[in-house]
Amino acid sequence: MRSNSFRRNRISRPIFNWARKIMPPISETEREAIDAGTVWWDGELFTGNPDWEQLLAMPPARLSQEEQAFMDGSVRELCSMVEDWTLNWRDRDLSPAVWDFMRKNKFFGMIIPKEFGGLGFSNTAHSEVVRTLSSASIVAGVTVMVPNSLGPGELLMHFGTDEQRKHWLPRLADGREIPCFGLTSPHAGSDAAAMTDTGVVEYGAWKGKKVLGLRLNFHKRYITLGPVASVMGLAFKMQDPENHLGRGEDLGITVALLPTDTKGVRHGDRHIPQFTFFQNGPLYGEDVFVPLDHILGGEEQIGQGWTMLMTALAAGRSISLPSQAAASAAMCARATGAYARVRTQFNVPIGFFEGIQEPLAELCGNAYLIDAARRTTLAALDEGHKPSVISAIMKYHATERMRRSVEHAMDIHGGKAIIDGPNNYMGAAYRAVPVGITVEGANILTRNLMIFGQGAIRSHPYMLEELLALSNEDREEGLDRFDDTFWKHVGHAFKTAGRSFLRGWTGGFLGPAPKGAAMARQWKKLSRYSAAFALLSDFALLTLGGSLKRREMISARLGDILAELYLLGAVLKRYETEGRFAEDKPIVDYLMQAGEARMGIAFRGVLDNLPSRPAAWLVRLIAFPWGVPNPVPSDRLITKLADILLKPSEQRDRLTPDLYLGQGHDAHPLKDLERAFRLVVDAAPIEKKMRARHISDAQEAHDMDLISDAEFTQLREAREAVEKVIAVDAFPMEEISATASQHKTKKPAARRKSPQRQAAE
């Protein structure tokens, strides 16, 4: 007892007083953001010694029979009803038949429990539906995505009163009501705390009676489904200047359920998000009065809007956007590999050029990694986890890798992907990339502030408790809690340093790996980097304190390391879960090396810029005595990955599953591409035989009896299919230009020919 008292007063107290000066107190808004969601595998990674057995033991995400039937039936039928070019170029909206089909088949009520008339689907089913729909049409994917994530439905299930759920959920499930969520204000953007929309508590008239309610004034923009929404979840700052509720004047961010036909509510004109015509637009409210029972969750949820917003955004970040990113990455890999095989330059398929194989390999790797991380995250969500830090990782890294995939696909397709028209299957994805990068927390903000900034507090074994102790208004009680937690943290730090030393000096060989794992060496590497990350995080927090918030580049790099650890763990889990296909090993090797290189850049970036040079030197000595590794995938490995995309196989299908490839359409560019791809590969032996004789003309080869009648027909069919694929669209001038007549010119007068020209002719 005496030693504890001595430690508390002589050692812990000075540290406590010093830490209170350098560590800013946790604001109420920050506390609510931290409390939103749960800690899951991110907490394991912060320990520096993750239990990989726990990750592997988690059951994989799977569809039920009912969910699979929905995928095979309603989802495929809906895909066949959407024609993206007509939608974006002519109609600027989904057709009435598509809207009716989505309502009838409860696409807007997938996550709503069956007791309220919904489908009661899992998070996995929600993701798979969005993924497949998005491969057919981004507009259709977004339209289904929003009511099942960023909408009142999810918030009602988590926070609504019984009366609100009974009234609204059945109407949302069958599409009688179309929802939207009003968060973003013109001057607030991603900073919800800066919103200027208000709800003032006062008495007003409602259905002929004087009742206590809210006087709402708001201007919301970028609201998906806003132009057609019949009910909105409205976020606003609630104020009670006359203290009617006895809680003070400023009541915090609150959410209300507001029918859009309420007096004073006005739909604005539509936004056009990068010529991707999902319904999006502003909503306005001027002196809108509603009773207090319009508050989502009733009066008990006043001021809890920030927590609700974090909950709503988490679904979009961890399910919807990664699903769309997975669809785009898989489609880019599949279509670009096929196009690179059928398109030739110098009589050689362009996919055989090493300059093309390098981006093809990244396309292959991105498709595998994004889907691996998506499936791992879905498995956690289906188990009841709500990992806010992991959702931020998924949002940022899935959409950024999607961006890279789309850019590579555009580069390889060249003019084919630039010229718009019904035959361009890449243009819509390219236009939509900035939307995914920007929405639900801009990627720059997510990387620099959220992943590590939130994770260091939320997921670290001791940091949150220490900060709460430092923020305690009762200094002595805070000191007691700090004394207990701080010394546990010290013990943890010494263990982390020991692990980092052993794993660093042995190149990871002494790191743990799951028992019986097929790629034990790769797991050991992750164990090494996890320990080094935990060690470096503690030194950064210790030496920078509260100023780490302002050192966004350092925070971002630490977040990059945390994210790579999660993503690569998901890759290894996928390899084990799917059955350890030997042909997939090169993909895993490639991703591990590329991921190690990215972590190396991030580690060096932190160590080179950490203000405390002794701390940086010590971490290098402990964790990286031989230098920070910087592996580069070999040319041979890159070629192996490219080859996966350049020929039909079960592996290629497994890498890009459940995409919509034009089934059900009489004419569809992806359907034509897949057909040409198969025909070209089948005809490759004929082409090879002709090249050996330096003959490119099929008729000449046939006349020489080099190829048979059947081979001639087969080759002609393949070449005709390729011509159809590489063709691009062109339109009559008057069809695309309102001023076409101004561009018509008179026929030029005949020019006199020179004597030289006459002689030449």
TrEMBL record:
Pathway: Lipid metabolism; fatty acid beta-oxidation. Residues 457-731 form the Acyl-CoA dehydrogenase C-terminal bacterial-type domain. Residues 66-175 form the Acyl-CoA dehydrogenase/oxidase N-terminal domain. This is Acyl-coenzyme A dehydrogenase. It is an enzyme of class 1 (oxidoreductase). It catalyses: a medium-chain 2,3-saturated fatty acyl-CoA + oxidized [electron-transfer flavoprotein] + H(+) = a medium-chain (2E)-enoyl-CoA + reduced [electron-transfer flavoprotein]; a long-chain 2,3-saturated fatty acyl-CoA + oxidized [electron-transfer flavoprotein] + H(+) = a long-chain (2E)-enoyl-CoA + reduced [electron-transfer flavoprotein]. Its cofactor is FAD. It holds the Pfam family Acyl-CoA_dh_N.
